[in-house]
Amino acid sequence: MNFLLETLQLIVMSIYYNVEAFVRLFIPFKKKNVTGEIVLITGAGSGIGRLMAERFARLGVSLVLWDVNQEGMKETARLVKEKGATRVHHYQCDCSDKVEVYRVADQVKREVGDVSILINNAGIVTGRNFMDAPDSLIEKTIEVNTMAHFWTYKAFLPAMTANNHGHLVSVASTAGMIGVNGLADYCASKFAAIGFAESVALELLATGKDGVKTTIVCPHFMNTGMFDGCNSKWPVLVPVLEPDYVAKKIIEAILTDQVYLLLPKSMYILMGMKKILPFKTGNLLGMYLGAFNFMDAFKGRVKKE
């Protein structure tokens, strides 16, 4: 009997959430007030990390900026103050180093307070074929793009669950949903980041901590320093994204408690195609979603998000 009831519940809830998603396409959800929240952004020294910080500056939050690049982070702090932020704190932190993450997190708790919105944004890409990538770079990619999320969650999630209030944001990639030629280590790290974020989100729901919201962001390649020189083969369907647009959509997703954000919107259709097409056909998408002359754009350099 329980099996039948649970099956019926699954069907009803699936219909409900699909209808909700459809309605959301036409009627935007009310945005929540984040005034007074403590927002921590990793990788805030450049790219969309900096742009998100600038947008949060107008919302009355306390900003905590983390980056391994101290000069870039100081520049972000200066820019957000110009945008109106009055409470800005910045800390140099290598998110791939567990000990350093815990140490700096304790410093943030003492000097600023408990983080209530955590945005895991820091990331790197090597841009080399799998067999050409040194072991050290593969390990660094996993440490920054995946393991760092484990350590920041461990550091800041306890306070959120104690208060049943907060928001966890994982900035992943569409490369975390479909394999891309020439990005084996990067794709693996982003697949793992998505799986981790989804699993923690389910743990929170299972333990009744529904006040802690989660958002998983999967943008296509962006026009940042990380992907300089890359061009989309399908610019109309899957354009290279402008970082300011991505930052804007991420902030909107956070303010409306959107669970998944795929950019551009065509990615929702393409991801569905991957699920229903035969293996070989579906995975051809991974070759064409990659950028034209993708490997030439990197020239063996490690790039940071």
- Provide a count of the helices: 10
Secondary structure tally: strands = 11
Mean pLDDT: 85
Instruction: Kindly report the spatial arrangement of strands forming the biggest sheet.
Output: 3-2-1-4-6-7-9
Q: Ranges with pLDDT <50 over ≥5 residues?
A: 291-301
Cα-atom radius of gyration: 19 Å
Distance between the termini: 51 Å
What fraction, in percent, of the residue positions are helical?
Answer: 40-55%
Approximate shape: globular
Which sheet architecture does the biggest sheet show? 7 strands, parallel
Tell me the strand percentage band.
Answer: 15-25%
- What class, by secondary structure content? alpha/beta
Q: What is the chain-wise order of helices and strands?
A: HEHEHEHEEHEHEEHEHHEHE
GO molecular function: oxidoreductase activity, acting on the CH-OH group of donors, NAD or NADP as acceptor
Keywords: NAD, Oxidoreductase
Protein name: Epidermal retinol dehydrogenase 2-like
InterPro entries: NAD(P)-bd_dom_sf (IPR036291), Sc_DH/Rdtase_CS (IPR020904), SDR_fam (IPR002347)
Layout of strands and helices, then pairs:
Layout: H1 2-24, E1 38-42, H2 47-56, E2 62-67, H3 70-82, E3 88-92, H4 98-111, E4 117-120, E5 124-125, H5 135-163, E6 166-171, H6 184-206, E7 212-219, E8 231-232, H7 243-255, E9 260-263, H8 266-276, H9 279-288, E10 291-292, H10 294-298, E11 303-304
Parallel strand pairs: 1-2, 1-4, 2-3, 4-6, 6-7, 7-9
Antiparallel strand pairs: 5-11, 8-10
Helix pairs in contact: 2-3, 2-7, 4-5, 5-6, 8-9
Keywords: NAD, Oxidoreductase
GO molecular function: oxidoreductase activity, acting on the CH-OH group of donors, NAD or NADP as acceptor
InterPro entries: NAD(P)-bd_dom_sf (IPR036291), Sc_DH/Rdtase_CS (IPR020904), SDR_fam (IPR002347)
